[in-house]
């Protein structure tokens, strides 16, 4: 029926629902806060919410907090590290240090990397950006293999509940998990940790070792973790704030 009256939203009001930025909604299983802001790898805003929060609710939350979101965006974008490049002299991370890449042409030998306190060297007959990128990835993995098992052995020496236990260590490149632990004694560590300061690796190992004794995050778990790795809170904060720098490639 046409009554002659418009049923649409009064002029001006529809603008209330428009936001001065674009965003993408990402639902994650283990998010406790209603809304968590993040930037994706392209610098776009991610509204991270628990599984059960619908699109309309996300939008309402963003509208309600538009000033906070804009402040977050300004700060996050200013803090964003420059994009990674794989040229001679490009800066890359290793054990918390930012080191220049040195590309060294080499005939007839397999691709190799060398990690020192001063630089990361890539020896190869292929020094185009894509090849260097792949060689560097393989180099990080090799370094992780060398370092991680050693650190697990060192840290488990202080965890008497692991005495006599068979721990299987697996390494995996992961986007947002630093480590996992199964009741069968499999500890999986994110190879990207090789780029972070050494205490990050140690903290993640200690955390997973504690899970071999207590599978949840209850008070008993934190008692163990406090004893095995005092000061872990600072490391966790560091990983929360800077973690994205380590998982970029
Ligand atoms: Zn845990």
Characterise the protein shown here.
With 249 residues, the chain is an alpha/beta fold. Helices cover 37% and strands 20% of the residues. It has six helices and ten strands; from the N terminus they run βββααββββαβββααα. The strands form three sheets. A four-stranded mixed β-sheet has the order 4-5-7-6, covered by helices on one side. A three-stranded mixed β-sheet has the order 1-3-2, with helices on one face. A hairpin with a 4-residue loop joins strand 9 (179-181) and strand 10. Helix 3 (129-156) packs across helix 4 and helix 4 crosses helix 5.
Summarize this structure briefly.
By secondary structure, the chain is α/β, with parallel strands linked by helices. The protein has helices at 55-64, 66-79, 129-156, 198-211, 219-228, 232-246, and strands at residues 23-28, 36-39, 45-50, 91-94, 97-105, 112-115, 120-124, 168-172, 179-181, 186-190. Bound molecules: zinc ion.
């Amino acid at each position: 029926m046409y009554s002659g009256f418009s049923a649409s939203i009064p002029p001006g009001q529809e603008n209330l629902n428009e936001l001065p930025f674009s965003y993408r909604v990402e639902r994650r299983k283990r998010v406790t806060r209603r809304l968590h802001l993040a930037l994706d790898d392209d610098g776009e805003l991610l509204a991270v919410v628990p599984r059960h929060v619908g699109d309309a609710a996300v939008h309402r939350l963003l509208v309600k907090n538009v000033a906070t979101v804009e402040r977050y965006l300004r700060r996050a974008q200013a803090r964003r590290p420059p994009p990674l490049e794989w040229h001679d002299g490009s800066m890359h991370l290793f054990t918390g240090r930012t080191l220049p890449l040195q590309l060294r042409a080499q005939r007839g030998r397999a691709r190799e990397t060398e990690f020192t306190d001063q630089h990361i060297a890539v020896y190869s007959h292929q020094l185009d950006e894509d090849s260097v990128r792949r060689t560097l990835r393989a180099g990080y993995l090799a370094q992780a293999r060398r370092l991680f098992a050693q650190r697990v052995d060192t840290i488990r020496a202080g965890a008497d509940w692991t005495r006599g236990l068979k721990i299987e260590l697996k390494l995996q490149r992961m986007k947002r998990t630093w480590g996992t632990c199964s009741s069968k004694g499999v500890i999986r560590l994110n190879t990207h940790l090789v780029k972070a300061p050494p205490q990050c690796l140690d903290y993640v190992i200690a955390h997973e070792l504690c899970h071999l004794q207590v599978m949840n995050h209850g008070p008993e778990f934190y008692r163990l973790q406090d004893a095995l790795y005092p000061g872990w809170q600072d490391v966790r904060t560091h990983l929360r704030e800077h973690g994205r720098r380590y998982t970029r490639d």
